[in-house]
Batch of 4 targets.
Target 1
Amino acid sequence: MSASDKLSAAGDKLKGNAKEATGRVTDNDEMVAEGKLDQAKGDLKQAGENAKDSAKNVFDN
């Protein structure tokens, strides 16, 4: 996983956490849902990059 990909995934997760927390405080269900979606997007990016790294390691050995 490259540094920029790690930052992108972490950024999505952080943004999602902030949106979800803000939505809960302001009782905004739509913002809570958007936050959860952003977090899922970050998790998906991270999983994809981990799969790429695993494949690379298999073929490099």
Note: The mean pLDDT is 90.
Target 2
Amino acid sequence: MSSSTTEPEPSDGLKAFGAVLKSFRKHASYTQESLASEIGYSTHFLASVEQGRRLPPQRFVDQCEASLDAFGTLRVAANQLARQPGIASWFRHWAHLEQDAVSLYTFESRLVPGLLQTEAYARTLFEEREPPLTDEQIEHQLTARAERQQLLLDRPNSTYSFIVEEHVVTRPTGGAAVMREVIDRMLERTSPRNVKLQIMPQSRGVHPGLDGPIQLLETPDNRWYGYLEGQENGQFVSDPKVISTLHRRYAKLRTQALTPEDSVGLLERLRGAL
């Protein structure tokens, strides 16, 4: 879901919800463009929900209900999604919240964060997966990752912070050409004012992120949640005490990493050396 090599499998429930939404939209004589504009989401996001590629956040469902006068049908369909065994509970929670997050913080010590990966970089990860993925699964994973990456483009008023270990961008994942493209992508996607990237230098011997990756997000009602990812599972975090600990760690990581300006300079030098 985040920077790992796994993405949630598509489900019949998501496709069914999308079909119901599309039916109500057409019955109300809305185009995707006009409905998206009215409910405050991008046309791309609305299309992805209708195609069964994205989980609909609660605010999205509520806005569609109000605009389409769906008699509660969309809310019922969305509630059914939450009970589907095919969608992991950690992803269900996180994906709902991530789409509307006003702040999203990511510390990554293993791989380039999923939101900043290129297709070639992600394909390398998926093709080297053990046990192996089928060609169809790889293509699905690539599509799901590209869909999620729209977050940085669709939400210019949200705040994004990335802290990435230096060794992540010096490891030749996929070869020099792939890494040059990845660094270009990282520089491009973190250039807007609402997106900050910091590199944790290898010279920093010890820091609070040594226990593993961290993700934190803030909802529109200013609640904070976290997500911690392991080899074969993910942990959704809502306990305020744990969130406080993760915040303290992330805050210290920010002070120990290179500044955004110095991080850009380092990435440009690394790219030139490839």
Note: Strands lie at 103-108, 159-165, 195-200, 214-218, 224-229, 234-237.
Target 3
Amino acid sequence: MAGENRKWNTRVDDYLNRKAAERGHVIAMARMGSTALERGDLDDAEAWFRKAAAGGDRVSMSNLAHLLVERGVPEQAERWYREAATAGDSHAMALLGNMCAERGKSDDAEQWWRRAAAEGRVEAMAELGRLLHRRGETREAEGWAFQAAEAGNVEGMITLGALLRDSGRTREAEPWWRRAGEEGDASSLSRLGHQAEQRDDLARAESCYRAAAAAGAPEASVRVGLLLHRRGELDAAERWYLKAAKRGDAAAMTNLGVLANDRNDLGEARAWYRKAAELGSVPAYTNLGRLAADRGDFQEAEHWFRAAADTGDQAGQRDLDELYRNNGARHRQQF
């Protein structure tokens, strides 16, 4: 009986809310939009949000903008985010800043992020910290990143870690990377690192990879190692490779072999390459082939170069062709 009363009361509330909305009551219109959105009726939700937004409801303006983004109409969405932001909605300010940044309007983005940050929006503080870091304004960047990080924002932690690392304070950065790893998803953090690396933003890439490694992603440990390797920090790179190698990462084993080879420790290099080759590392195949070729072992070199070439690896095929050119076709195996 109680359940039936609740259903009856809900139907009455819905009826009264609809009547109020039809008479132009803005809050009722906003509720109608939210109810339609909950039941998946996007057309009805958009219609009611538009009416409430036109009536000055800034929450509906923001909700309408979210809906328009999802529906693939970013130009209209930006217009409503701007309306909501101008009306004082700090969440809309932050999102409008993001949209401006995506369109390359960094000055507009900064303006809206600053306004949102002043209203206490943590995500805007994090974005502002990133922007200022890229611009080299490290003191202010660190201030905003620290505020965002302290509030639990993963982006803020990543940026703060990068800023501290850039200024030589790696030990101060490490707790923030660990915390970002605890708060964030390892694969997402790795993707952020890859995107930053593609943009040649290596400080941010390293910060993301370190956080991902703290979250348990062995491939992120390899990426940190590679960044350190390229910077010439070989001891640190080796430590990161070893972390990943202990968890069975073939790329880390191959890179440990490269480091050993570079310091002319060919026995250790061969041992790491073999471990990696057992796990199917194609670069390890070619590196084993080159070691064999250097010591004049044609048969072993051919074995490893062919193993690489058979996977479709062009470097392995080139090495195999060069081996035949240098040693004569009479050595070519017959199949």
Note: Residues 1-9, 330-335 have pLDDT under 50 and may be disordered.
Target 4
Amino acid sequence: MESCEPLPGGDPQNDSGPVQRESSLVPSARAVLRVLAYPFLLVAAVSVAAAALSLDWDPERVSPLFLVGTIAYLTVLERLIPYQRAWHPSPSEWRSYGVYFLLTMAASALAQYAVTAVVSAATPGEQMFNLWAEIPAALLTGSLASYLVHRLGHANPILWRLHGVHHVPQKVNVGNNGVNHVLDIVLAQGVVQLSLGLVGFSHDSVFVVGIFVAAQGYFVHANIDVRMGRLNHVLASPEQHRLHHSTDLSEAGHYGSDLSIWDHLFDSYTWRSGREPIAVGIGDPELFPPTGEIATTLLHPWRRAKRAGPGSA
């Protein structure tokens, strides 16, 4: 989509509607980048996973390095092919996002450690089948577990007080993908890791799936103007995830952040070509503390709940 001017009377800094684009690239370069941005990320994920397995790299070092590289890549794309320039993080937002990112990483590590301790005796860590058979099976298993716990986070009032923290920002970008309550991450990652561990998938297959899921998780949150066409019916995308953050719950849906097949299966798929949210965030911002108030946000689940329905984005 080409750059366009704000609607008459619109505030170019605060308007959260999908009407503003900007880029320093010429139109032909933007068009090419929109097409190649996602395939390049997928090739990078496959290449890193393949190299790590063949060269026996330490997964505990490869995974965070790949994650940082993915974030850097998508952050650059947000400047080159932005979906909405008003969604660029301010310096103060980057600082708070950084704190949330560190908390999220710590919570993920805690969940993985706890699950490993619980299922280590039942998990051989060796391949049950050929690796190429295990990888898609592990992806489907983890993706389904992630979908279910995510949807429950919107449907259950108690869990929404945790997960709703992620929906407070009135913009969707790579930086605020890490805006989460630590307990929400412990729960979500714990369920996914437990499902993979109890089935008994090998460490190699879980590592490969983790690389793909990490890339997908940040990709769908990226403030980039890409079009995936029919691939939207198999893989999650920014086009879908922006709808997930919509304040209009009738179009929100899209609880899958890696595969979109579960949204089709469980009737939560609302995307169609050209559909864009009018606004993102929470319908009643008073229900949660502002994202920048990190300490207050972490204590929020234990404060007296205000009247609100579950999943009230």
Note: The radius of gyration is 19 Å.
